[in-house]
Each structure stands twice: as structure tokens, then as C-alpha cells.
From TrEMBL:
Residues 57-82 are annotated as: Disordered. It comes from Edaphobacter modestus. This is Uncharacterized protein DUF3106. The lineage of its organism: Bacteria, Pseudomonadati, Acidobacteriota, Terriglobia, Terriglobales.
Length: 235
């Protein structure tokens, strides 16, 4: 069994709105820099105006419907003229936060947005800059992976996280533990383990479906902060 980072289980043991909110926050990433519209297609702008994920486990509200639809203007397929959020942040990494804010404000289309939306985007950029560098890099790299998912793959992530998020918190934790135990096991052995009394006996049909759904998602770093995960639910 691999060691696990504190973020991994805490991500998988938070309510649905955390999972869906973070994925919504991550998916709308890519855009052209040649032809911008008032609805904003620059990736940073598209991402920053979506709901941010909570910083602590349990900080999200229950009952939020998952939403993985791309931002208007996001094709979902990166092209040669498209820039990812990771690239934007790298390109502006030499700037202090206040200068990054100014760069954001000078992105084409920014000033066409309602004042409230502009402020939300400034706040999101501040949130990114408040992360430590390692965590921010991991987060941006997950964004990169999400940006490359096909629509069916995004739907698969959505369905799995919805099923997982509908479980009670104590059962989510148990399902998350099982996921971490099984994710690196080769598929044939994994299926045999899933069908064994050890796992069939401890999970309901709904919990077993959630576990199977999570294990069906490739690559795993789409839903995990780190391939090396720690069993602790604390950050």
C-alpha cells in the first residue's frame, strides 16, 4: 500500500458540493487568445468566476447539484492558440500578487464583465496565490489533466463524484480508504478483491457502486491531489 498525502482522503471525504465545486472550478480552463468574447474565454477568467472549493473538510454545503458543464466559449479541446491556467500562472509567476491582479484586469474581455463577477475573479486569484507553491502546482496540474478529458470522461467523473458525495460522511471515509487500498492494484486482482467478502461484506450496494465508480476513473490524479496519499483526513 502506498503512503498517502493529507489532502487525498480529505478530498475524497468531503460532501458532494466540494467535489463538484472543485471539478467545476477546474474544468473550464482552456480558450483561444485570438478572439475573445464578452462572456470571456480566457482560461483564468473562465476558471476564476466559478465557485471555489472550501479550504477545510466539511466546509461545503450538502445538497449542491454537481455541475461539470464547460464555461461558455470553452470548447473542451485545447488547440494550438489556447492557453491553460497553468501556462497563464507560469507566465505571470515573476509578478507579485498585485501585479498579477493588474494583468488579470487587462485580459481582453475582463472589463465587459459585471463588477460582481470581476471581484469574484480577483478573489479567486488571491486564493490561488495564498496556497503554498507545492499545493498550487499540484492544483494547477490537476487542472491541466481535467482540461484534456473528453466530454464522456467528464461525465464519468461527474457521475462517480455524485455517487460518492451522496454517502454519509463516515461512509465516505470508509469508501475513500478502500479506494486508496485498491487504486494501485492491477485490474484483474482488483476485481477479485472487490468481489471478495472483505469488500462486499463491508459496503452497501450504493457504497460499492461509489467505490467501483471512483476506481473506474483514469487518470486518478483527476480526482486526487497526489498519487502519494496519506490516510489522514486532516490537512
Amino acid at each position: 500500500m502506498t503512503e498517502r498525502s493529507p489532502e487525498a482522503v480529505s478530498f475524497l471525504t468531503t460532501p458532494t458540493s466540494f467535489a463538484s465545486g472543485q471539478l467545476s472550478f477546474m474544468i473550464s480552463l482552456v480558450t483561444t487568445r485570438r478572439a475573445f468574447t464578452p462572456v470571456l474565454t480566457v482560461p483564468l477568467l473562465a476558471v476564476l468566476c466559478l465557485p471555489a472549493f472550501p479550504q477545510q473538510p466539511g466546509g461545503a454545503q450538502r445538497g449542491t447539484t454537481p455541475h461539470l458543464a464547460p464555461h461558455p466559449g470553452f470548447s473542451g479541446n485545447p488547440g494550438k492558440n489556447q492557453e491553460h491556467l497553468l501556462q497563464w500562472m507560469d507566465r505571470h509567476s515573476n509578478l507579485p500578487p498585485d501585479q498579477q491582479q493588474k494583468a488579470l484586469e487587462h485580459e481582453p474581455g475582463f472589463r465587459d464583465l459585471p463588477a460582481e463577477t470581476q471581484q469574484r475573479m480577483r478573489d479567486r486569484l488571491t486564493q490561488l496565490n495564498n496556497m503554498n507553491p507545492d499545493r498550487r502546482r499540484r492544483w494547477l496540474e490537476r487542472n491541466e489533466a481535467i482540461a484534456r478529458l473528453t466530454p464522456p470522461q467528464r461525465q464519468q467523473v461527474r457521475d462517480a463524484m455524485h455517487e460518492f458525495g451522496s454517502l454519509p460522511s463516515d461512509r465516505r471515509h470508509q469508501v475513500a480508504r478502500a479506494f486508496h487500498e485498491l487504486r494501485d492494484v492491477p485490474v484483474p486482482q482488483r476485481q477479485a478483491l472487490l468481489n471478495s467478502d472483505r469488500y462486499r461484506g463491508q459496503f452497501s450496494d450504493q457504497e460499492f457502486g461509489a467505490l467501483s465508480g471512483l476506481l473506474s476513473i483514469e487518470p486518478y490524479h483527476v480526482i486526487l491531489p497526489n498519487r502519494n496519499a496519506d490516510d489522514s483526513p486532516e490537512r
